[in-house]
Amino acid sequence: MDAPNTTQLETLVHRQLRECSPIFLALADPIRQDIIMLLTKHDSLNVAQIVERSPMSRSAISHHLKILKQANLVQAAKVATEIYYSLDIEEAVRHLKDFIATTERIIEMKTAGAE
User: What structural domains and CATH numbers belong to the chain?
Assistant: First the structure.
């Protein structure tokens, strides 16, 4: 096993893990999971529409949407006086796939080195 390659990959996977952390944190909450699921069924929803479909208060939903937005899982678009939220997960999925691919390469290298 080539130590510099493993070290480089470990550095890369560490950076990727840091990039994925906001995604993991955002998806860890059941309320945010419910919001994501709602947005998979609708092109976009405003806060009032999400509140109608949730037991949570408007302020709680707004808080959860802020976290999802910070994790780049939803985007907001203002239409007249309302803000509509929609899924925007392509970048997050790319980060997660890159993290998994690098992790798999490290495992393969370590497995090959143990043989």
Answer: 3-108 (1.10.10.10)
